[in-house]
Amino acid sequence: MASRILITTNGYKETWNTIEYGAWLAGSLQADVTLLGVTEKLSPLAMDDHLPLEDVFERAVSLFTDMDLAYSIEVQSGDAEEVISKKANSGDFITVVSPLGRPQLHRWLVRRSIRYFVETISNPVMYVPVVRLPLDKLLICVGGLGLEVDNQNLALQVAVNNYAEVTLLHVVPPVDLDYPTSRIMSEHWRDLVNTDTLLGRSLRKSVETVELAGLTVEVIVRQGRVMEEITSVLQQGNYDLLCMGSSYGGNALRQLYAPNVTAEIAETAPCPVLTARAKHS
């Protein structure tokens, strides 16, 4: 478990979501806070949406004090994405980020900040496009291959501390190759949790883990395109937090031709998204 919560802001007014949610997360996990402010050279068109860091810090310190949180403050200059990523990888942090107020043309040409963070930060990342509190319903996406274990353990600690209901979601994607395991998955996806497959055993283990934590758990299995099914369940279930695992790093070759599902979902999610990259030996 990370020992500190790294809360980030570049002064963009919407990053207050990051500060508010990060403070709640720190209180929930009984963790210390590092507040990182990034001073950027902003274009005149972006100035109206930004506040002086001193004003942001004043509000944040008042919030931290009211919540009796231990905190430290850092200010660095440079590109926010690069500064935040470097700081996040320098220690055992859970990094809390939100949209940084980039112009639409910048997002189109360069890509959204969350994509960069998911690819470059090796520790857990909490993306907060909107604050959803209290935390009553938690959706955890499980791949069934063990890649989501780090994220699942962190998500469960948050859930336990907030007595949240947990839903485990697995999506069986379309399978083009015909082999025994794929046939079982395609024919028995509705009761996959009861099958003697690697995925079935993994789902049962996940259910057992949640139940041992004393939480209510539901299992949902869908068949179809991963992004579409996750988005559908997320919208229908009115969840307060989505937890996903990112199985590959920024230098993985498949990033060149396959979308990063975590980043794609985070860009449109109606709630905060927690992701932890799988660690490979």
What does this structure look like?
Helix 10 (261-268) links the parallel strand 9 and strand 10 (273-277). Helix 1 packs parallel to helix 2 (53-66). With 281 residues, this protein is of the alpha/beta class. Mean pLDDT is 83; it is low at 247-258. It has helices at 16-29, 53-66, 80-88, 104-110, 113-120, 149-162, 180-187, 198-212, 226-237, 261-268, and strands at 4-9, 32-39, 71-77, 93-97, 125-127, 137-141, 165-172, 217-223, 241-246, 273-277. Strands 3-2-1-4-5-10-9-6-7-8 form a 10-stranded mixed β-sheet, sandwiched between helices. It starts with a strand and ends with a strand.
The low-confidence parts are 247-258
Count, helices: 10
| Strand arrangement across the biggest beta sheet | 3-2-1-4-5-10-9-6-7-8
Total beta strand runs? 10
Rg is 19 Å
Largest sheet: 10 strands, mixed
- Helix-strand string: EHEHEHEHHEEHEHHEHEHE
Q: Structural class per helix/strand content? A: alpha/beta
Primary descriptors:
ten-stranded mixed β-sheet; 281 residues; alpha/beta
Task: Summarize, please.
The chain is an alpha/beta fold and 281 residues long. It contains 10 helices and 10 strands. Helices cover 39% and strands 21% of the residues.
Would you spell out the secondary-structure blueprint of this structure?
Blueprint: E1 4-9, H1 16-29, E2 32-39, H2 53-66, E3 71-77, H3 80-88, E4 93-97, H4 104-110, H5 113-120, E5 125-127, E6 137-141, H6 149-162, E7 165-172, H7 180-187, H8 198-212, E8 217-223, H9 226-237, E9 241-246, H10 261-268, E10 273-277
Parallel strand pairs: 1-2, 1-4, 2-3, 4-5, 6-7, 6-9, 7-8, 9-10
Antiparallel strand pairs: 5-10
